[in-house]
Structures are given as structure tokens and as C-alpha cells.
Amino acid sequence: MTFLSRFVRHMAWRETRGAWRHFSYFFICIAVGVGAVVAVSLFAAHVDRAISREARGLLGGDMEIRSSRALSTEGRRVLEDVGRRGIVISHASELVAMAAREDRSSSTAKASGQLTQIIELKAVEPAYPLYGTLRLEPHEPLTGLLYPGVGMCAQPCHGAVAQEALFLRLGLQLGDKIKIGQAVFILAGMVRTEPDRSANAFSLGPRVIVSQEGLRAADLVKPGSRVRERYLLKTPPAIPLDPLRSELRGRLVSEKVHISGYRDAQPQLKQFLDQLSRYLGLIGLTALFIGGMGVAMSIHAFLREKLKTIAILKSVGAESSTIIGMYVVQSLALGAIGSLTGMAAGVLIQRVLPPLLTDVFATEILQQLGMSADLSVVSIGPLIKGAMLGLLATLLFTMWPLLAIREIRPGSIFRREVGVTDGYADTTPLSWRTRWGLNDAPKVITMVALLTGLAGLSMWQAGNWKVGGLFFGGLGAGVSVLLVAATSAVGWLRRLPRPGALTLRYAFGNVIRPGSQSIGIMIAIGVSVTIIVTVSLVERALLRQVGETRPVDAPTFFFIDIQPDQREHFAALIRDQTGGRLPELTPLVRSRLHAVDGRIVKIEDDHEPEERRDEDKEERRKQWYLSREYVLTYMDELPKGNEIVHGRWWTSDRSPTTPTVSVEEEAAKALGVTIGSTLEFDIQGTTVAAQVSSVRKVDWGNFSTNFYMIFSPGLLEGAPHTYVGTIHVPSSQELPIQQAVVAAFPNVSAIHVGDVLENFGRVLDRLALAIRAVALFCLIAGGAVMASALAATRYQRLYESVILKSLGATRAMIARTFALEYMMIGMMGGAMAVGLASALSWLVLTYLFELSWSFHPAVLLSGLGLTILVTLLIGSISTYRILGQRPLAILRHE
What we know:
This protein is of the alpha+beta class and 894 residues long.
């Protein structure tokens, strides 16, 4: 009889129609898992589609030339030559600056107590933006707002537009004036969306946009100042981009610039969202795997209720393969319906992720791309993938319990009164091989197919065989640990003496009796809670590392862009403001690596195939060290938090005869340099060389000014440089010092360490919230598994409850018995989950973040309490109807 014969189809439909209530848990398990996978996959697809659609706007042009310093005369001549071909060029400069209220007598300013604010300043030309939409209030052209007419000021002045955060923090309104550097600007508009703002997890302050003429009037750009110069190009359709980029790369090779096309727009955002979507998708797949356990339990419970039907079918000549085929068709049909429901739920749920991640980046990119606004355009690929994952998971998890049909003996079913209770082949104590089915070829094949299939699903979802393999291996190890722990816990309970209290005695019996499904419930709930608790522990550890472990004498402020001629005056100002304290001033020289041991550094093309980016991570890491901008310094003494691991440090009484440099160990490893190697740096067109004398291990979390490269004194003193100043002050002096510095040195930016840490905490909280939102699906799936497991023992519970009622037990006593049972399961499952979460968080913190692990009792107790509460709630809902059954009706049936 064929697998899809008329008889098989008819019986599958009949069995489903007659037991549709039973399969509600089956349905929920698949729908929850598929919904999680589809929601995350749709989010990733919409991100990719939106970024591709708005790529030119995200970059700001067809092509971008980016540099850490202004182009030389020869470089500007190259751009002028390019501009004669009909290519529109727009110049934008981005830097950090300080804004101060010009009207300091305002009552609003006095109320807020804040007169200055660090900002991210952007200076543009009239052609900006070349692509995309800069949404402003009022809705007027940007040029008119940056070049205000006579109506806004009596004499020629400069305009500015800023994000709403600046207005709120300084108590400003449209038309008020702010001072940036040496210039005064009128706030003529408010920025709502900025298309080409780089996606960055950490923003030092609100965005303020001014004209290039305004930037020059502010006089902020000095030799050595940190400025990102961007030259945006808009090309006619007739000019192909790749040849133009190759040409510019060759003609501007001496400028040390990065040239990227619109296809490479927002690479950090793409990489972050791709990785986040990958790992959120794996958490969603975990929910599907947990749901698969519920599917297996539902099938197992269903077969127990259908023993007579199966026995009759076998008695009239049906083969086991035919009956298995019947229930496979039934399961796949239910899996298809559950997958369709999950797909619909995923389409709706995917709207939740963009709002959760909007605040992670200092950009409105997730909002302005409208990903969460339009549900009429849905990518088909993620829906098909979700449906296939649901069907494959259904097939994989149903085959193992369905194989038990072969062991059902009709004679055992029809002779129950003589002692056979379940209809399966009754045997004497089995060896471990027989118990695990290793002597049964179909079971071995099914087990191998199950494991191989789950591993394949993991790799398919991850999009990378290594990541998928690690995920499957880690999940398998976690489930194995929970299985061993749950089995041991139940075995330990069996050896304990039974409690004297009647309700507790029956609760104990329900947990440890054969076929109770307690172990499966503990594993399903345990995996779910493990994920959530692990995320919370890692988040707490990261926050503690940057917050609670902050040294008492850590700097309160970092003052950047202090010019050499301002050094003494700045130190005097700080001394007067703090009552005698002096700031720590460190020289900074901006440069790029020119050569390593005589080999000229070549910056590779940013446009790489995606496959290569995944495969050559080590090469990309090396390229980052080669192409990045280095901030150099020189000093006599080894800075705190630095440890020499190779070579030796120079001292003030024995200066080296030749210029030497000390290199951070990770940089040294990536660059392939050792003691005696030679490094050459390009400092604004001038090349300087030094010999590596030592390799240092740096504690980057010590809140000090740390460097990859530190030179010996003597070589860099004559190079264009600035200073960074650090000072620790009491909280009462923070605001006066910041305002005094900005008033005396408008070009100096004050970075408050506390604000940076607060921003880090906000970003980390948002990321953790997004992960928890997806991990919640695992918890829901675990709840469905528990309900499914309780359904497997429903009749046994019902029979026992009516017997107890007949003997005088009340509903309240039976309810207390069930509640104690669920609390015991939740307590054991929760204890195992928080233990496993502690181990996982220790591994992540120790080997991934290289941080110390600490005990967080509040998180662990919350996880334990959550597990107990969830199991109690779901168990009570699942068995509520049993309490209302009358004993006579059930006993008559017997």
C-alpha cells in the first residue's frame, strides 16, 4: 500500500478530525518556532532590501572619498579635474565640538543648569545632500536655513540646524543663538532625519549641521585636529563607477584616502545587523527545536490514546508501515498548518525588532527606511524558508515516536485485564543498547537522520557551516547536560523517603513515576530559561566592567584638541577651577602606517565579495591594522595599565640613540612585527621611521589614555600635534569646569566619561532586550512542551483524581497536589537552568570578552523564580479541567 494511498489519506483526515483538540499543542509548538524564525528572517531581509534600495542616500553619493585630513593641493586638483566631466562633488567635514548657549541669562538655561553641550558637527556645501532626504523643521531648503537672510539677523551671520536633543538639553528654541568655536550660529531648523549619517552605536552628542563657511568662521580645525573629510560624488549615468574608482585610487594613492561606492554604504551597520539577525535566527531555531520536543510528546500521547485503533487496523491486515505512513501524513498536514500560522505571526512580529534597535545606533536609519511601516511588501524567501524549516522539523521529530507503532501487539490491547497496561511489547529488563534502540536498524537510521537533519537545519539557518555547527554542538551539549542533570535529580528523588504530608506525598509520586514526562519538561523549560538568564548575566558583567569597576581616580573628563599654544593656559585654568589640581596632558600625533620593514602598506579595495568577507576574517583584521589611522604619542614613563611582554622600555636617564617605538601586542601580532622591526608612519605627508623596542600588553578598560604605538621622546616633538587632557574632579565641579573650558577654549571638546558609560549601558540594554524578545519564543515553546507533556498523562491524572475524590479528597487538596508537583518540576528545572547559564556566561566572559565572572544572586534567583512561576501557571491551566470531572462518569467508563 503506497504512502499516499487513498486509505492513508482518508484515515489521516479521520484521525485528525476526531482528535483536533489534542493536536492544539502540536500546532502551537510548530507555530511558535516558525513564527520566531520567520520574524527574524523577515527583519534581516527587509534591512538588506531597504539598505540596497537607499544605498546612494545612505552613502550620500554614488561614491565617497574619505580622509582623516584635508586633501593636499594635488588632491584638490584631481577632484577639480574630475568635476569637469559633469560629476557633482560635495564636500562634508565631520568632527566633535562644543556648543554653548549664547544667551546665558535665559531662565530656561538657568533652570536646566546646562550651558554647554558636546556635539557632532557636520559642515556641508550647498549641493548637500546629493541623494536621500534631509528632513527638517521648518520644511525649507537647507541652504536657506544655513545662510539666513536679513530677516533673521541684522548683519551677515551663520545658520545651523540641529537635532531635537540639543534643543532639549540646552533649553533652546528656533531662532536662539549658540556659539561653536569662535562663531555664533542661529538655530534656524531642527533635524528629523539625516540620510547619510554613519550608523554608530555610540554618539557623543546631538548632530549639528552648519555650512563650510560657518566651520571656517568657527576656527575649529587646527593642525592635528580630528576631522573626517568626506568628498561625495554624483556621477552621470554614462560614467561607470568601477573604472572611475580605480582611476581615483591610483591618482590619490599619496593622499591615503578610502574610496567606496554606494554598494558599500554603511558597512558597519550591514555587518552588525547581519550578525545580529544570524544569532537571533539561531535563537528562533532553538524555539523551533524546543517545539519539536513538544511535537514528539504530542505524538507519543496521541498514540497512547489510539492503541485500540492501531490494534484493530493491525488485526484486519494493516502493516506497521501503512499505519506509520498514515500518521506521518497527518503530522505533516498539521505541521503545514502550524507553519502557515507561524508565517503569519512572523510577518506581524517582525515589526517589533526595528523599534527595539532604533536607539542602538546614533542614526534614524531604521525609521527612515520605513521597514516597520509597510506590511504589504513581504519577502517571499523568508516565508518559504520558515515553512520548510517547520515541515522538516515536524518530520524529524515525529519519526522517532512513530516507530513505536511497530512494537504494539493487538493481543496485548485486547487482553489488558490480564496485566498488560499500555499495549506495547512487554519485555524483561533491557540492556542499554536495547533501551536506546541501538539493536534496531530503523531506530538507528532514524536517530542518525534526526541528528543530521537538525545539524543541517542549524547550518542552513546560520548561513555558515561553522557557526551552525558550533550552535548545534553547543545546543546538543546543553541539552545533554540538562538531560543528565534531570535524570539524576529524578533518580535522587526516588531514593528519598516519602514525605508524611498527603499532598506532598502525591506530588512526589507524580514527579518520579514512570511516564511522568518530568525530565522532558525540565529540559524544555531549562533550555528556554538558560538563554534568558545567560543574556542577563553577560549584560550585568559588561555593565559592571565599565561602571562598577571604574577606578575611583578614573578621569571625569577627556579634553581633546588642545593646541600646543593653549597647553599652559589650559593647565592654569584647570588649576584655578579645582583648587590646585593639574590635568594630565598627553600629546597626540595623527598618522597612518606607511611601511612595515620596508614594505609599503597598500590599502585593499573595500569592495569585496561577501563570501570572502566571511572566510578571510584574519586577513580583514590584519588589513584593519594596516589601514587604520593611528594616534601616536611620546612619553618617558610606561603608562599605567601597560605591561612590557617583550623587549624593554626606555627610561628618562638612558634615552635611546635611535628613534624607537613600543607596540601593543595585538597590533604587533597582526602586523607581524617583532623586536627590531622597523615601522614607518605618514604624518601629514612626512614619513618618520622608528625601530620596535618593546611589545606591550594594554588594559584597555582602565579609563586612561591608551595607545597602540608609543614613541620614545625626541622624534615627534616637532610634528603637528594636539594634546588630550584628563582630570578627575568631584561631581560638584563638573559643570563649572566644563563651562569654563568651553568659554576660554572654544575649540576644545569636553567628553564626559559618565555620559559615555550611560550611552554604553543604553545600547547594551537595547541589544539585550532584542535578544530577550526572541528568547521569549523559546519560553513560549517550552510552555507548549510542558502542556503537551501534561496532555500525555491526562487520562492517568484524571483517573487518579476521581479515585481520590471517591475516597474523600477535595478539589482544593488535589489542586494543591498538582501545584506542588509543578513547583517541584519548576524548581529543579530552574536550578539546572541557572547553573547552566552561570557556566555559559563564565565561558562567554572568560574566552570571548576576556572579563572576570562574578556571582549575581538577584539574576539567578529571578531566573529560578521565573521558571517556577511559568511551570506553575502552565501546569494549572493545563489540568484545570481535570478538577471539575465527576467521579461517577469516569468510573462507569472503566
